[in-house]
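Known limitations

Files may contain more than one protein. Parsers should not assume a single record per file. Below, a two-record file is shown to illustrate correct handling: read the sequence, read the token line, then continue until end of file.
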Amino acid sequence: MSHALLSPSASKRWIECPPSARLTEFLTETSSVYATEGTIAHRVAEGKLNKSLGYTDRLPDCEDAEMDEYTDDYVSFVTEQAATLENPTVYVEQRVDCSKYIPECYGTCDALIVSDSVIHIIDLKSGRGIKVDAEENDQLRIYALGALAMFDFLYNIDTVRMSIFQPRLGNCSTWEIPVAELTDWAENTLIPAAQLAWNGDGKYKAGAHCQFCRAKAECRERAEANLALAVYD
């Protein structure tokens, strides 16, 4: 599967450290058993949600008992959230175009609920390693911007709701903001950072976002930050 240079999933990194996007552009991303497991879990969750919503008659096979349980929990969460909204429509694995804000950028919402005044982005995280919070989550904000671009001419949307559903850590995090606040973030933070990253400009910056950077072993900025920390210690 191909990924956009400025992918929403890596946005925390390239917003904080714009030149890292071009630095890692041609570095191979190694796969792992966790990534493979996550892919399977999303496929199972997609099939179950489509079946629950009546979009298909087929129910996906799942031989992993734990996965079978937490994907059921995910489906219950999505349907419960949809029931709280007026005239909701649920889109499953909905691709959204984010190129209005980020060059050649797209993303896929695990579940996207659109209603008369609220859109709700729900992201399934099947990992148990790192707890992910919905508050100020750059990936979900970018997805929400793409969803707004698709639907704001059909609906009078004034609120964006975003959820991380991470069942193996018992984590269900939800955050909502007004559309005006989201678009303000896009204009003043996202677009300038995306332009710097696309051009390979800006300053390198070390931080927590380095964890999943494919160039972290060769990055001088990160090495200097680690050295400074070692001297301080």
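...continuing to the second record:
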Amino acid sequence: KFATAGEDPTGMAQKLSLTSKITAFQQYSTNGSLLDSSLTLEGTILDSVTTNLQSAYTLTQKSVNGAMSAADKKSIASELEQLQSQLYDLMNSKNADGEYIFGGNQSQTQPFVKDANGKYIFQGDTGQRLIQVAPSVQIAGNDSGLSLFQQVATRRTASADTGSNNLTVSVSSQSEFDAFYKNNYQFGSTGNNSYSIVTDNTVTPAQYTINDSGGNPLQTGDYIQNTAIIFNGLSLTPDVAAGGSQSFSLDAPKNDNVLNSISAMISALNDSTISDEDYSKMAADVEIHITNALDRIDITQGAV
């Protein structure tokens, strides 16, 4: 309608405004395509990680079979080594521009390395690269490997306190104990995470009471020496006559790279001197750690 701004100043102002908006939305469209490509790649990689971790879980579970020979265990260890190598490569995946996907904002730094002690560590950061896809909408185009693979909760456990040598503590139901642990573990004070089993031989049958660190009773029942007491997913077996007390504590929570648990499993499989009890405990630790890693990845996949 006009050739110069002087012919229609208002029209020219509208034209410039619309041109600016068109340019912006063209950029949003380009950003959306880049975002889709980035998240599709991440999703594909996480699918592969899930498959490898599920295979590692199955092999770990299979190795607990008592009929396994030393040669069988070494064969499983070899398979786990291959899976571990594949997982390591997947965790250090790059996009088409050569940027590390799981390094946070440190896209030019390899996020996962093995240190001098043979431990897998993370050297990226927690950053996410936000991509503008609408005037008021930004969506993350990546996820940091710190929360995905490095800081994964290990198995939550409890142990008999020093001096309670006649008490055996084990986890009988991990899910039940995890719920109790989550609701009751107190950070910053070891003493507040201690519990006592007080037994009374002045009544028939003898009785036990489980108290928290403040002396508040949580559970009571008949006491039979060397018979397990089930308490919130724990199996507590005191091997002492009634009339005294034993104590146990919730172990401090730990997070670790799932690759380190697989390394520990490989070492256990190659160790001919390890006891069946220690081996079973190690396998249970690894299974829980892998399960927690799979849960974390599943949540991230949902976000992707």
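Parsers that stop after the first record will miss the second one. For reference, the second record is described as follows. DSSP finds six helices and 14 strands in the chain.
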